[in-house]
Amino acid sequence: MKTDKKNIRHLSQGDIEQYFEQIGEKKFRVKQVWEWMWLKHAHRFSDMTNLSKELRSHLEDTFLLPALQVDTTQFSEDGTVKSRFKTVDGHFVEGVLIPTEERKTACVSSQIGCSLSCKFCATGYMDRKRNLDFDEIYDEVVLINQQSEKTFGKKLTNIVFMGMGEPLLNYKNVLKAIDKISSPEGLGMSPRRITVSTAGVSKMIRQLGDDKVKFKLALSLHAANDRKRHEIMPINDTNNLQSLIEALNYFYKQTENQITFEYILFKDFNDSLKDADELIRMYRQVPADLVNIIEYNPIDAAQFRKPEEETVSAFMRHLEKNKVNARLRKSRGKDIDAACGQLANKNKPMGL
After folding, report:
1. Can you list the positions of beta strands (E) in the chain?
2. Core-most of 3, 28, 39, 109, by most CB within 10 Å?
3. Assigned domain for 345 exists
4. 118 is catalytic
5. Of 128, 138, 195, which Cα lies nearest the Cα of 164?
6. Closest-CA residue to 245 (of 271, 214, 211, 206)
7. DSSP string, 298-349
């Protein structure tokens, strides 16, 4: 059912102030409404209890206040909490709470589905329905933060944009969401604790540099030669490794922000010492300070499998011997729908 009502969270404070002037409301009400939306995370006008009933009713009749809702939650034995969120228009998107002793990290999505068709990723087998709006991304973080406080008694310490979708193909909403997340009027989180992961959109990596962003950047690399990367990541056709090297160097020159490589190991595909040598060569051409070697979470739609532990150990030893700052990231949530897109891709709602 279509409506001409505007989403009030898409208005600026100035827009709301102008509207309140028109209806004869006092200026200080603007700050109250703003705090309810972004600091107190109200998802209904009726929750704004320091406003008069008349004003709450008027806002209800005039504006929309859509919000993500938790549809399904899965709890892993290792503490990982995976949620499927439902949008107001009936789509599903995922978010994950990844706890360690030192950190409580939210992994959030930026799109409903994805258009990049990476062969190893469950989301890559979904169509991209639409971009998430900045307030929907903000809601993901708020809801996961609430889970962290409830489950572990601690607030989020870090946020990674490594969920469904390609963040740099939803550029404006991602940057606006990060602005809200890091604002004192929002969650007040330092942008240095936020990492945006990209499959590699060279033009937009350069744009991040021009915009002097303060958050960290991760490149989902997964193969350090163009032939192999093309096989698993079609985006490499238009954003080859040389263009990415140049873009990442430009980004670092403009921002001096941390760059990380993400490299999932696939059995008999990119796990040999020759593959490690290619990764070392690329590492030396970019001011990357870390390579995350990632244990693969298999999905039904793809034929990729995890390498044997001895192969992983040999790969890691070779990197370390060649002075690559590498860290092995173990798979989390193995007993639930851990791989990105698996839970959102399920057709039927699941019990809590």
Report:
1. 6-7, 63-64, 69-75, 81-86, 92-99, 104-108, 111-112, 130-131, 158-161, 194-198, 216-220, 259-264, 290-294, 326-329
2. 109
3. no
4. no
5. 128
6. 206
7. --TT----PPPHHHHHHHHHHHHHTT--EEEE----TTS--STTTTTT-SS-
**Tens digit of pLDDT for each residue in 172-217?**
999 999 999 999 999 999 999 999 999 999 999 999 999 999 999 9
Considering the domain architecture, whether residues 119 and 36 belong to the same structural domain is answered as no
Would you state the structure tokens that stand for residue 141, as one six-digit string? 């973080």
Q: Are residues 248 and 277 in the same domain?
A: yes
Same domain? For 44 and 188 the reply is no
Distance of CA 303 to the CA centre of its chain: 25
Q: Is there a single domain that holds both residue 50 and residue 123? A: no
Same domain? 276 vs 218:
yes
Residue-by-residue pLDDT tens, the chain, 352 positions? 456 899 999 999 999 999 999 999 999 999 999 999 999 999 999 999 999 999 999 999 999 999 999 999 998 888 899 999 999 999 999 999 999 999 999 999 999 988 887 878 877 667 788 999 999 999 999 999 999 999 999 999 999 999 999 999 999 999 999 999 999 999 999 999 999 999 999 999 999 999 999 999 999 999 999 999 999 999 999 999 999 999 999 999 999 999 999 999 999 999 999 999 999 999 999 999 999 999 888 877 778 899 999 999 999 999 999 999 999 987 666 665 554 544 555 543 433 3
Catalytic residue among 107, 114, 118, 340: 340
Active-site residue, 340 included:
yes
58 and 158 co-located in one domain: no
- Residues of the domain holding 269: 69-329
* Cα dist from 111 to 94, 243, 341, whole Å: 10, 24, 11
| Single-letter amino acid, residue 324 | V
Which tokens belong to 182? Answer: 């890091």
Q: Are 73 and 60 in a shared domain? A: no
Burial tier of 65 (Cβ tally within 10 Å: 0-12, 13-18, 19+): buried
CB 196 within 8 A of CB 217: yes
